[in-house]
Structure to design on (142 residues):
């Protein structure tokens, strides 16, 4: 699966965004190691705190179906009625990625409507992170 194709799926997932409060629409497409793909969008709530980001929607959909091994996520976000602009994942989503993904390997692809793309490793967006290994006494910093 190419980064371009994954980004197309993120853009399509953005169509499902429920964001009547921020009017900021985000879609994500998560590539699993077995080649399967899970998509997600942001889903907001009148009470605000129950809202969830597109990235976590995609990751939780995948985990809930037994997937634990992920290679990459494409993210497309931007204001309603406008073109997507490069949108980096929030800190909470980065930490959720850290739970399931190898910081040295997991790729985060940001896309804009212009076709511009930026690719980061999780370790670049979440340096010196705390993860499952810390609780097993096997600290692995990256
Ligand atoms: N949002 C995402 O879904 N992903 C991001 O990477 C950044 C922010 C959502 C949360 C909220 O619904 C809206 O965008 C504005 O913050």
């Amino acid at each position: 699966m190419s980064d371009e194709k994954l980004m197309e799926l993120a853009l399509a997932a953005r169509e499902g965004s429920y964001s009547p409060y921020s009017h900021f629409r985000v879609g994500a497409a998560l590539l699993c190691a077995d080649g399967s793909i899970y998509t997600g969008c942001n889903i907001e709530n009148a009470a605000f705190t129950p809202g969830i980001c597109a990235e976590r929607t995609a990751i939780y959909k995948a985990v809930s179906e037994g997937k634990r091994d992920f290679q990459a996520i494409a993210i497309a976000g931007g204001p309603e009625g406008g073109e997507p602009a490069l949108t980096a994942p929030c800190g909470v989503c980065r930490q959720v990625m850290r739970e399931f993904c190898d910081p040295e390997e997991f790729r985060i692809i940001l896309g804009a409507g212009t076709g511009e793309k930026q690719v980061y490793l999780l370790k670049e967006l979440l340096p010196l992170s705390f993860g499952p290994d810390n609780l097993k006494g096997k600290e692995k910093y990256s």
In short: The helical segments are 3-14, 54-64, 91-100, 122-125, 132-135.
